[in-house]
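Every protein is a chain of amino acids, and every chain bends into a shape of its own. The protein below has been through that process, and both of its lines are reproduced in full.
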Amino acid sequence: MLETSSLKNGNSGDHPADFPASITKVTGNIDLLTEILLFLPPKPLIRFQTVSKHWFSIISAQRFRQLHCRKKHSSGKVDGLLFCWWVYGNNYVDFIPFNNYVDFIPFNNCMSKKQKGIIPLAFKNIVVDSTSSKIERLHSCNGLFCIGFNMGVENDQVYYVYNPSTNQRRLVPLPCTKPREVMVMNLAFDPKVSDYYKLVCVIKSDEIYEFSVYSSETGVWRDSMEILDIKQQYFLAQGVFLNGCMHWVSEMLSFLRFDLDSLSFRAMPSTVIPSGVLKRNIRYFGQSSGHLHLIEVYGFMSMSFDVLELETDYSKWFVKCRVDLSSLHIAYPLMLSEELDLLDVNRRTCNVVCVVVDDKEKTTRLLVSTPDVIVEYDTRRMTIKEVTSVENGKIPVMWEGVSVFEWYDTHQYVETMACV
C-alpha cells in the first residue's frame, strides 16, 4: 500500500519518507494519484488524509468527493443492509412500540464482529449527552441516512442527517410545526445531479397531511400546497427517491409521485388490484440503477411472483422478470415453519429485501431474507448464493421468535464520501 512507509515510520504531514522512485513518481503525479485513490473506499481514504498535506488536499477537495460519489453511485453496488425494526408489546391492537433494534449485515466477509457492531452503535449514539433518546424513524438514500430521535418527551423530536462511512452528522432544523406533528421525514440525495440533499417532511395538521421540503444548499424549508387526508393510507415512511421525485405506494389507493422542485404531485401509474382481492399485498418497493421496482404477492403461501419495473416515461408497470423461490425451502427448511400456522401471520418466512439491477451485465439479483441466511438469487442464471448469515432478526411480535426481515425495515448501506 502506498501509505505503508510513512505511517509505519511515523512520518506524516510534509516529512520526507524513503519511498522507492517508482512510488514517488506515482505520488508526485496528481492526476494519476487521484485516479488510484478514486478506487478506494471511504474509510481508508479518511485515514490516508493523514499521510501528508498533499494527500489531504486531494482527498478533502470537494471535486474529489464529487468524483468519488458519482463513481460509486454509477456502479450500483450495495455494501450491506441496515435493518431497523420495532418490537411490539402484548397489546397487539394498539400496536404501540416499546423498543427498536438496529442491526447491520455487511456484504464483506473481511469485516470482524466488532466492526459489524460499530455501525448500529454509531446510529444510536448520534445524539450526544442523551441517555433517553431512541431511534424513532429512519430513512436512507444513496449512502446518507435521516434519523429521527424521540428524546423521551412527548413530541420532542430531533432529526440528523448522517453519513456512516465518514461518521459525519448534521442536525436538521425542523419546520415550524407546533401544534402540528412531524410524521415522516424522507431523504432525497442523488450525487449524479447535486452534492446537496433534500428532505421531504410529512406533517400532520388536524385531519390532513401537509408537505414541506428542506434543501441543504439553502438551509430553508419550502411549504407545498398539496395535502392528503390522513385516512388515505400510504407507505409514506418508505418513500423512494428517483428522478427528482419522491414515490409512495399504497395497498388500496393510487400511487403517488411528489416533485421536490415544483412541490406538487405528478402523474404516477398504479397496479391493478385483482378482482375479488381487497388490497395489494406489497412485498417490496425500491429502486436500483435508476429503475423503480415493485413486488406484489397474492396467495397465502405463494413463492412465485413477478418483479415489476416502471417505464422510464411513467407510462406503465411491466414484468421485469418472473421468480419462483419455492425450491429454496429444500435448502432452508426454516423458511416454511409449521409453528406459524398457530399465528395470524404469513407463513412465508422468506422476504425480498433488496433488488439490484445491473444494466451493463443485464442481470437482476434479489437479496432474500430467510431465518438462517440472506441469499442472492440471480434471476437470469437462476442461481442461489449465500451472502451472509442472519443472527438477530425477529418478526415484530413478542410471542414468536422466528427470524426474518421485511422490506420496509431494510435500508441499503452504500459507502460514500458525500458531505452532510
The two ends are 29 Å apart (CA to CA). The CA atoms of residues 85 and 409 lie 5 Å apart. The first strand starts at residue 80 and ends at 88.
